[in-house]
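Recap slide: TatD DNase family protein, sequence and predicted structure.
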Amino acid sequence: MMIDSHAHMEMPEFDADRKDVIARAKEAGVDAIVTIGTDLDDCFKAVEIAASFDSVYAAVGIHPHEVKKIDAQTYDQMQELAARPKVVAYGEIGLDFFKNRSPREVQIRRFGEQLELAKDLNLPIIIHDREAHRETMDLLSSWKGSRRGVIHCFSGDYAMARKCLDLGFYISIPGTVTFAKADKLRDVVSRVPAESLLVETDAPFLTPEPFRGKRNESAYVKYTAMRVAEIKGIPFEVLAEITARNACEIFKIEL
């Protein structure tokens, strides 16, 4: 059993062969995919895809790149979407100070607002953090919500991972763990208990070895899980089952 805890099946990269991509994931042993909306239109699309495929679930939220577009109606629409069947989380939300496609002060304000919305909706959160570790941890530490959720595509060091675990979050490991220069991430994987890990593709991005350079897809989460199992010194099947069970627990998925 495996779960791809973070993909973007709603993105146009999959418009030509989405059904085939989902079928290949199933053939590879991926029992569920969580597809993650990043703006309002993609959130609608993610929910529609989840409704159309038994193995797909959805998360809805406004990505930090897109928060500059939030208007008076956005959160009302997000609340409506969050109530749809098979919506299992609110996200991905957070901060991205690497590309700064939305102004930093806007990102921080909207992140706080979306944390409060997730609390009101009683949904776990999926956090995007890129080059904004301190600010992300400050906001999560001061937030009065349940702190149920996932740090997606983890890019910090073990000290940060330890703080995330202490706050109650899972750490999600992407395909970058297979890259030659990903020693910091592999150190995190070696030290974080398997019971606190998820695996993800972030498809169509971050394709793991041996397919690096090609479009990523959920079937390839197997290669991430294999590398994580190798680092932790446990059988692949055991690691796959533990991380799938973790995803089922946080997202309330029944398989």
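The CA atoms of residues 94 and 111 lie 5 Å apart.
The chain has a mean pLDDT of 97.
(End of recap.)
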